[in-house]
Write a structure and sequence with these properties.
It is built from two helices and eleven strands. By secondary structure, the protein is mostly beta strands. Strand 2 and strand 3 form a beta hairpin. The longest helix is centred in the N-terminal third of the chain and has 15 residues. The radius of gyration is 15 Å and the shape is globular.
Length: 164
Amino acid sequence: MSVQTVCLGWHWIPYRYSRFAEDTDGAPVKPFPGWLADLGRRAVAAAYGDVQAAAAYQPDTALINYYDGAAKMGMHADRDERSLAPVASLSLGDSCVFRFGNPRDRGRPWTDVLLESGDLFVFGGPSRLAYHGVPKTLPDTGDPDLGLADGGRLNITLRESGLV
């Protein structure tokens, strides 16, 4: 993983969550904003076509990853949450190749999908524990008016932790 990460709601430390950024400065994690939860519910409604599923979706964690032109993220599965609610992922800035695999292991089969700025990817149900990653970012493909000083890509991943 060669990205820079900021968390809201809960801080993800490999294999667990904390209310403090224990692996950096120890500061309390900033709150998860309600407008981001609303965005997640709208994403789930659009992806599932199910207003009840969307209303039940209560994301409380955001992992905000910044990818520079050389950054990538290896295949992994989001298995540290106690909830199996869907994951909603919003891409901003440079495009990337998003590799979406299977729930068994990091190997094939997988599908490479081009994610561009503004794309929203939701995975849940049998695909919730699928391995996924970003093998490649595509520098200088984002709109410079987005305001990312050095270009790059932001990915905002919303999750329901299942923690209290």
